[in-house]
Amino acid sequence: MLEAERKQGQFPQLEMSHLLYGGKEYFDKFLERQNFFDNHPMFKVNHDFYNKSRQDQILLNAERTIEAFKTIQLADPNYYTPNVLCPQGIFISTVHFAMVIPAFQVLASDEQISKWMTLLKNLNAFGCYAQTELGHGSDVQNLQTVAVFDKQTSEFVIHTPNIEATKFWPGELGLYCEFALVFAQLQVDGKGYGVHPFWIRIRDKETHKPLSGIEIGDIGPKMGYSVKDNGFMSFDHFRAPLDSLLNRYIKVSRDGKVERQGNPKVGYGSMMYMRNILCDQYTKFGGRALTIAIRYSLYRKQFKDDNKQEIRILDYQCQQQKLFPLLAEFYACVFGSVKIKELVNDNFNRISQQNDFSLLGLTHAVLSGAKANYTYFVANCAEWCRLSCGGHGFAHYSGLPVIFFEMSPNITLEGENTILNLQLARYLLKQLQHIVSKPNAVPEFFKFLSQETVKVDDVTSLDNLIALLGLNCAILTKYAAQKLMSHSDMKESWDTKSGIALAKAASTFIPYFNMLCFLDTINNKAKDTKTILTVLARIYGISMLLNNMQGLLLKNQLNSQQIKTLQDTRESLYPIIRLNALSLVEAQGLSDNSLQSLIAPKEGDVYMNMYNFASKENSLNKQQVHNGISYIQKMREVNAKL
After folding, report:
1. Conformation bin of residue 596: beta by default, left when phi > 0, alpha when psi is -120 to 50
2. Out of 414, 416, 571, 586, which one is annotated catalytic?
3. Nearest by Cα to 502 from 474, 481, 472
4. Under 8 Å between Cβ of 348 and 273
5. Each residue of 567-616: pLDDT tens digit?
6. Catalytic residue list contains 452
7. Buried b / exposed e across 345-365, counting CB within 10 Å, b at 16+?
8. β-sheet bridge partners, residue 186
9. How far from 64 is each of 56, 91, 288, 615, CA to CA, in Å?
10. Would the pTM of this model clear 0.90, i.e. be above it?
11. CA atoms within 13 A on the CB side of 400
């Protein structure tokens, strides 16, 4: 049914695939690993998975992790995408490889790395990242777990002083890990030295039971990540050895002398690594949702035209309005994530190899905004894709609910999105000051803050869309700055008077950044895909302006005719995307097994797929007469007595 759709694509799909994955090498590696998941019997998608209990899902996921570990390097960050995108569920080692090991690389001394790194990589030291507590998450500096140095024994006494200080939410803590990277307030001789990481064995090597003085468990079911054992942990004056403190940047001698060295902000390094994964890898779940929704919209026909032929629902303009701006945004976020990955890796290497922190502020700011923007996009995209598929979108067999459930927590974890936007806002204000005091120090991405106005003839050209998006952010940043400065108490003003304006300003930066990356891809990387990418970029830029043009309206930078032009132009571009929609989503190279959807196969009868699952594979139908029928009779008996 879809072959004719594929033939009308107007660009070389393989070139687009290489752009989406950052090059031929990465796309080929994706296909190689996807092929492993497609052909291994344990990784064949089981649509009855959601009828299983959580405990059975967890055990099945553990078996799958073992099988994957036999064949592929789960720890290799260069080829991480298929490890999270293709399998059903998420491997039990994800946090260990994505957070614990990077933290070690940044925070541990050379001696500690030599002692532990091999053990970490082969899982002989399997750990979790225990930072978040019941009472504090984003506010890391006010964590309440304490690590008090005991001079008599040269040990740290790790203690949970109250319920709020209980470690809560770390993945792989509830059931599996033997070690934990515990973040606690270091205290020596009654003096506090801030939050630092301690590498601690928390379970017995032989029995796997919690060590004396430690209480551990799983926190229970939650929205998404059903197979992940997010856990809780509390300490009762637990004693940890002197070398448990990761000590590249702070050391405590046996007699209690504290020596600091390097930049205290180094702890951001490992958190940036995980946020980069959320931007670089998990953004592709938006593409998976779009593949399902667009394919289904081509299979699905509703209502007849004048020739009595049923119409594919993707031919309806309203359906295109739901999906095509999201498709353009997906491409924008992917191209933005490629640049962010380069920035994060450069910063990470400078810190770990040269003790160079010159890119830390820029990287932290851009990554904070991108994590907030991209994770929200993926959850929002999954929801709109689900809604665009009508009733079948609600069913797990569509493959869409699981994307929404699994991706929604990312809005909160590893930095709550509002907090991250405020962190970007702080950097925007700093650069706004530099525009006046030391303009040469302003990074290229932030030079737009000097703009006061722009004059454009065609508001829909790429260059003018970028200029307008930058001006919109600049105006809102200056507005937020004025609001912040209008109160004498800056802290109170930030917290209670100007937070909305600050977060709003920050939220408009990433669309501008994405457009710069989109244009860079078109000009410097694309060849025969330039034309279709330019159409997508225009749809993205127009959509971002129409969604949020508050700054431009405040300064009368857009009039009603220009707004109408933006709307009309976007609609005029939809027919081009309609011809190429299937090719644009299939450029991701996702197999049917990776899509995990019965309503969007590469070829086949979607209705027969759904019927066969309901009638033959749904385990609830294995009994011809279900045991629950006895309760119907009991209900009748109760009713008879009323």
Report:
1. left
2. 414
3. 481
4. yes
5. 999 999 999 999 999 999 999 999 999 999 999 999 888 999 999 989 98
6. no
7. eebbebbbeeeebebbbbbbb
8. 147
9. 12, 8, 21, 27
10. yes
11. 28
